[in-house]
Design a protein that fits this description.
This protein has 144 residues and is of the alpha+beta class. It has five helices and three strands, in the order H-H-E-E-E-H-H-H. It has a domain of 91 residues: Alpha-Beta Complex (Sufe protein. Chain: A), CATH 3.90.1010. A three-stranded antiparallel beta sheet has the order 1-2-3, with helices on one face. Strand 1 and strand 2 form a beta hairpin. Helix 4 crosses helix 5. The longest helix is centred in the N-terminal third of the chain and has 25 residues. The protein is elongated. The termini are far apart.
């Protein structure tokens, strides 16, 4: 009984491919674990309910004129933001008020957040007042 020496020839290309696929497999397992692990957050985030569905309003005063900012929400999204009693005299006195609320509304629709809204350089003060009124209405809609 003699012992026979076995020689195994490995190509460097095969070793590199094996190492890359092993690293990708480990990375995939880690990502799946992170994505599907329970995070222990409150029940509200698990069900996705952030708002009580409905239309909520807040009052905005410009030059002794009260405007109602109306925010319509469903369970998880802000659907519309508008002025409910905007008339021609107010738009004549404040011509940039409609573009300001449309700009704010577009940003909120896109991000569904009130935190990252960029105020217009043309109307920073009016935009801030409108944003505060929208925040007030959304706070009324928030699930407690």
């Amino acid at each position: 009984m003699g012992s026979r020496t076995k020689i195994v020839v490995l190509h460097m290309k095969e070793i590199i491919y094996t190492a890359i696929f092993a690293a990708l497999g480990i990375l995939l397992i880690i990502l799946l674990f992170i994505m599907f692990r329970p995070d222990g957050q409150s029940d509200r985030s698990d069900t996705g309910h952030r708002y009580n569905p409905g239309i909520y309003t807040s009052t905005l005063t410009l030059n002794n004129t009260n405007l109602e900012v109306e925010v319509a929400v469903d369970e998880s999204h802000i659907n519309s933001i508008r002025f409910s009693n905007l008339d021609e005299t107010v738009t004549a006195m404040f011509p940039l008020i409609e573009p300001a609320i449309e700009d704010i509304a577009d940003q909120i629709y896109e991000s569904q957040s009130l935190d990252d809204v960029a105020l217009s350089d043309d109307t920073p003060y009016t935009s801030q007042i409108i944003l505060d009124a929208v925040k007030e209405a959304v706070e009324k809609a928030a699930v407690e």
